[in-house]
Amino acid sequence: MRLDKLLSECGIASRKESARAIRAGQVTVNGIPAQKADQQLDPAVDRVVYCGREIRYRKYVYVMLNKPDGYVSATEDGKDPVVTELLPEEYRKMGVFPCGRLDKHTLGLMLLTNDGQLSHRLLSPKHHVPKSYAFRVKFPLSAQDVTALETGVDIGGYITKPCTVTLDGEREGVITLTEGKYHQIKLMMEAVHNQITYLERTTFGTLLLDQHLARGEWRELTDEEIQSLTR
Questions:
Q1: In the prediction, which pLDDT does 44 show?
Q2: Is 103 a catalytic residue?
Q3: What is the DSSP letter of 86?
Q4: Could you give all domains of the chain from N- to C-terminal order, each with its CATH number?
Q5: Which listed residue (42, 46, 77, 103) is catalytic?
Q6: What is the pTM of this model?
Q7: What are the start-end ranges of the E strands in the chain?
């Protein structure tokens, strides 16, 4: 791989910026100042340092974000802030995007990545990846309401697939879906004459929201979390 390509794909510097840093002697490979931007190297073996920072090459990155209120699940919006703005610029340069969507006022677990193949697999309806949400509603939910939600309700001409609802009191609990229609949980509650007042995603497939992450905070997934998702 070319040295400038490695730095570009890692979101560290453009090829033009890389060439400038190399000319200034600010880039080393295995402790030796780099001479050319097109210098060939092995990312798995060679040690690259850019402006005093060691660079670890990764083709793909996987980030867990605890989404705060008011952010749009997109890379750009033009009106509201987007979730990618919560990450450092180098991740945005690597092309990360939200894997799936949460409504603007829904909180909690989001996966952001630049791995389009994994994202497609996780979101494909045929894979039935479960997602759990902690919720609160305005009015008490009856046993009949829970049965209707779990069996499937009409949300504007579409009958939702079976889900599970576990109540923790009359007005709150956890709902687990294997699909993700637009505003689905909100519309499901409206179908049983209720109204969502709080919604937070807590799981996505094998991922669990890290309770150490405050709203708006993020971290990269561990190797174990990545392997579990890709399986």
A1: 85
A2: yes
A3: G
A4: 3-55 (3.10.290.10), 62-125+207-230 (3.30.70.580), 130-204 (3.30.70.1560)
A5: 103
A6: 0.85
A7: 27-29, 32-33, 48-50, 53-55, 62-67, 97-98, 107-113, 131-137, 164-167, 172-177, 196-204, 207-208, 218-220
